[in-house]
């Protein structure tokens, strides 16, 4: 996973909070604590997939173009960084005569694919609105910031 996911979620939550205002890439970057070029790169992906709308020129910027109550983080993960959980390099060599070296890549590929599926399922439990609600509760001192999910979501066999 890369930081683009955090930038995307942060930006969408900010836009949901400021639903009646446009936000420039500079304003979002200041809030995210990164540079505007990184924000524009991520926002371009989000715009191309219908999560944000843009207006150019004076008074322009970004606005939320999705429903924060139904837009879940799994959708954002898929757009921004699906496939990034698996490292770009894996040990071993399929042409090596050793049983371990010749088969570890295949097994690890399967494990990373399954892990990514589980991660996406986890992100599907959270909407943009739920993240904003958690932030507001934390700000108001009503939460310790620990996400509140149902127990047993990923228990083995359940």
Automatic annotation (TrEMBL):
This is RrF2 family transcriptional regulator. It comes from Paenibacillus mesotrionivorans.
């Amino acid at each position: 996973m890369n930081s683009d996911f955090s930038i995307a979620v942060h930006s969408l939550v900010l836009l949901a909070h400021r639903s009646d205002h446009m936000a420039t890439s500079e304003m979002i970057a200041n809030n995210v604590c990164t540079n505007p070029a990184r924000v524009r790169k991520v926002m371009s992906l989000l715009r191309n997939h219908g999560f944000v709308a843009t207006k150019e020129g004076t008074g322009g910027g970004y606005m939320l173009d999705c429903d924060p109550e139904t837009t879940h983080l799994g959708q954002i993960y898929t757009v921004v960084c699906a496939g990034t959980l698996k490292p770009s390099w894996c040990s071993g060599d399929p042409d090596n005569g050793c049983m371990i070296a010749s088969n570890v890549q295949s097994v690890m590929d399967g494990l990373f694919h399954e892990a990514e599926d589980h991660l996406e399922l986890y992100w599907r439990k959270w909407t943009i609105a739920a993240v904003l609600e958690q932030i507001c509760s934390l700000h108001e001192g009503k939460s310790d910031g620990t996400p509140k999910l149902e127990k047993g979501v990923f228990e083995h066999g359940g």
